[in-house]
What we know:
Number of helices: 9
Strand order of the largest sheet: 3-4-9-8-7-5-6
Mean pLDDT: 84
Structural class: alpha+beta
Helix content: 25-40%
Largest sheet: 7 strands, mixed
Number of strands: 9
Shape: globular
Radius of gyration: 19 Å
Order of helices and strands: EHEEEHEHHEEHEEHHHH
Strand content: 15-25%
Amino acid sequence: MPSRFETCRRSPLLGGALGLLLTVAGCGTVLLNETGSLTRYDRLAVSDEVATKAKLYADPAALAATRTVRIVPTRFPESISGPGLNDIERRLIANAADRALCYELSLRYDVVSTKKADLTVRSAVTRVDLTNVPAAGATIATSAGITVASQLGVGFATAVGRVPIPRIPIGLGSITVEAEALDGRHQQRAAMVWAGGANAFTNQARFSSAGDAYDLAGEFGQDFGTLLVTGRDPFKEPLAIPNWNRIRVTTLGEAPLDPDCEQFGRAPGIDGMIGDYIGLPPDWTDKGPRDAIN
């Protein structure tokens, strides 16, 4: 039976007091489920190093021998989200996972677009809780109101738009994704069931039902990619300062390290950073996968 958790993803950079607040403050409801999209589940082990819930498996020897990897675009059927998300929003969420995953895999493997590869990676969104737009909008409006007051001489004025404040802890989104890597004989060499929920402190509020799921999908892609690259639990990896390549590709939206990652488009870059800050929906700044651009 699935287990239900009220949880948040906790950043390693946060201090103990804030970390405690995250455990008691509003967070997205996370469901770590198994829907049958993977070839097998019996070897999955629970990882509870952080508040994100995950079950995972990796064959380090097989991953070490891997040279080429193919990424099958993440499945996100309408039946999972119902009418709450449209086709564009579902596609952007799925693609956010693939784009983050492709970057991580390109750090070690040759990502290929052809069907023949040492490993084929496939993922599926199996559950989603949508962001409550009125609650997110209230947070953004309150933050903007604080900025206006500060500009009138009360407090500190930020350079861009509004002052970040904790979100109203109502209707925070969450997502669950199942993923695996299969070798040429269709044998599972790595797998993960990943469930993450937005929290009131570190996830940006947006005027979009898809906002939290979009951001969390990118976190999943990074975690699963780290598992495939290292063969180790990504939640136990030491915290590392982002290098220039990571900033250039994943934040500034420049060309990916592997040309085949272009199929998932590029990060929204500066426009995306500004859009995130003022709470714009993902589809206002993210062009999505390459075939959606052409």
